[in-house]
Structures are given as structure tokens and as C-alpha cells.
Amino acid sequence: MAGERSEWQFAGSSQKGEPFAIKGVDVWGTGWQVSAGREAEAHVHDPVYGKEYIFRVFTIPDGDQTIEFAAGEFSPGTWGFYVRD
Fold it and tell me: Beta strand pairing status for 52-62 and 33-34?
């Protein structure tokens, strides 16, 4: 809904395979695990054009922590990444 604040905040965008880190971990250099259940989707907005997307939620195990993020393609080869607020 317009004016509704998302729990997901834009972390950045990247061309597929171009280094992009979340919490110090390059997401393209690791295996992503798909989240399951009702938390498996994130409703996000493109920070430039405001278009709404529904991106999948992924996790990456990293030592004692699990990195959670939502990701999807804004356009072919250009990925957007979001983290929980």
C-alpha cells in the first residue's frame, strides 16, 4: 500500500556475478538457501522508480550467524538486494 513502510530496506544492487557484500559476505561467492513458509517472500519497492516487487527470501550460513536477505532481478542481469529493517 502507498505510504506503508516495508520491513525490508534496500541494501543495494549488483549485476549478476559482480561482487556484492551483505554483512561482509559476497553473496555471489556463496550458496543461497531458499527460506520456507510465509516468510519466503518479501514485498519491496525499487528505490529509484518505486515499482513494487515480490522477491524471494534467502539465507547464507556464515560461521555462527545466518545472513538473511531478499533478492530478485530488477531487469535482466541487474539484481536488487534487501535486508530486514
Answer: antiparallel
| The residue to which cell 514485498 is assigned | 43
Q: What is the DSSP letter of 30?
A: S
Distance between CA atoms of residues 58 and 1, nearest Å: 24
Boundaries of every domain in the chain: 14-80
| Helix, strand or coil, per DSSP, at residue 40 | helix
With 80 as the cut, is the pLDDT of residue 3 above it? no
Please report, as a single letter, which amino acid is at residue 20. Answer: F
pLDDT at 56: 95
Confidence of residue 38 (pLDDT cuts 50, 70, 90): low
How crowded is residue 55: how many other Cβ atoms within 10 Å of its Cβ? 20
